[in-house]
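Hey,

Quick one before I head out. I ran the complex with N-(5'-phosphopyridoxyl)-D-alanine overnight. Inputs first:
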Amino acid sequence: MKSLPSPYILVGDEIFPHHEAKVSASDRGFLYGDGIYETLRIYQGIPFEMEEHLGRLRESAEALYMVLPWSDEELARKIQRTLEANETQEGRLRITVTRGEGDVRARPEDLRNPVIVIRAQPYEPPAEDFYLRGVSVEISERIRNLPDALDPAIKSGNLLNNLLARFEMRNEGTFETLLPNARGELTEGSLSNLFLVDGKGRLVTPSADSGILLGITRKWVIDLARTSGLEVLEKAVLAEELYEAQEAFITASTLEILPVTRVEDKPIGNGVAGSVTLALLETYRQGVRDYIESFDWPETHA
Ligand code: PDD
């Protein structure tokens, strides 16, 4: 039998062997996509930027009128137990929280028993070659959810908007598809945030009000660029600006900083990973090393 990617999964407060890890068929996450999630990258057994991910999990919960009954220390302990059970070193870890069981007509205040599932699996990195030669992206005809309808800033477990954009990708060999908003501005990729370096050498990224997930890697890159003296513009970004950019890249916890060197069949800049992108990637990887070196699991008070 093929070995399972996550031999042990945490459900609630218990770790189960993969096939015994179960949630109810009446779970609202299953029935309505009524839940939230986070994906963290694990380096040497350490969850990178854990506090930031737990913070965003809480923000997503709040935006969906969900109350999380666990402290950050309790959540950290659940993560730690899952990583230990799976002996994860280089991995990705997903925290899923659903609103639990309940009728579709129930009000959020009547549903205070969220279900938590944590799974860790080995990390399969994109080919290292992608970081040198860059990847190709396309622009989707599917628009990103409107913030007034379902704010993309909420990391909801309902991924249909992103998945439809992925299913509709037109070109084989395209790594990511970029979704415009209803105004025709670029927002983000189906699973990543977008950056470009413009003709003046400034770092440009779609602003929060373009309707995006506020990526943790995105924030890291913005802070890093600003401290290193690079001008950063968070603004409305049009597709033409991407075509005319000197460099572009996408970010996500599981991708780090991945150069984008083609939009459909058009090269960006001179068609290879740019120097600003590669310098940011190197500093990011140094930041990861510093983080794991200084990381301590929080004390738990039983
Ligand atoms: N996706 N935008 C979208 C729509 C995403 O799904 C993600 C992450 C990002 C990047 O966010 P961060 O830097 O915090 O990882 C942006 C993860 C990898 C996922 O869905 O598993």
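DSSP finds eight helices and 15 strands in the chain.

Talk tomorrow,
K.
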